[in-house]
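Mods, move this if it's the wrong board.
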Amino acid sequence: MEITRVGEVTLGWGESLVWDDRRQRLLFVDCATRRLHWIDDGSEDVHSWKLPSMPTGLVPTMDGAVLAVLDDGLHVLDIDEQTSRLVSAFPAEIGGRCNDACADLSGNVITGKLNPGPAEGSAWWWSATHGWRMLDSDISNTNGPAAAVIDGEMTLIIGDTSKEYFAYPYDADAGTVGTRRVFGAMDGVDGRPDGSAMDADGGLWCALVDGGQLARFTSGGLDRTVPLPVRYPTDVAFGGPDLDRLYVVSIGTAGGIAAGDAGLDGALLVIDGLGARGRPEPRCNVT
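Not the wrong board. Structure tokens:
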């Protein structure tokens, strides 16, 4: 296994890694500078676009655009034209703005409230046809959501940064969940839940912020950990033509690290030889 730096970009607060398999393009953001970045496969050239407000979640859409979680709601981004269009404002019941996001296997969006520290929060389902529905009223800070068939059952996983990774039986079309259970227990594991990526075998690879490591959880619990050369990893995404490279972003200088002491904190990293393969990222409907 080898961990290397990609390009020269250093992020203040890296987040929201996602691989667009249609374009063979890696997308990620810097919350500290409100910038969307992307790299096309085979290149280390980093392109960037300053967005109207802070982006905290990116989801590929069915029509090839990108859905972004911004301050006032969900926006569709046309990266080539660098235009942004609001498709849905956050409901008042959220009491703020949302954080991380993903699509389920039916094209709906899963997201939830952003809380920098422990506070009241909730996780939500959004459909372009049916709008917003609350999934869980007890998720302080939504992170690393993922939907997959696990052990033969449609399952939704939502991480809470102040707690653990939870799993629910999930009805994607109705936007409802069953009784939640712990999927990724943090007892005895260094770090806190942040972004995640599902592999092709039903394992959830998780960035453990302030833990300096990744963890893979399965329905049987903690399966594996991978130490990283950064203290504050925030998100991961499988990419490359064979989806066998795992990219990692982290918090850099926005986390209180002096610019001269940052080392690899805030750098874009890639792990090769991990022995795991991802799945194509689910896409959402926006019309």
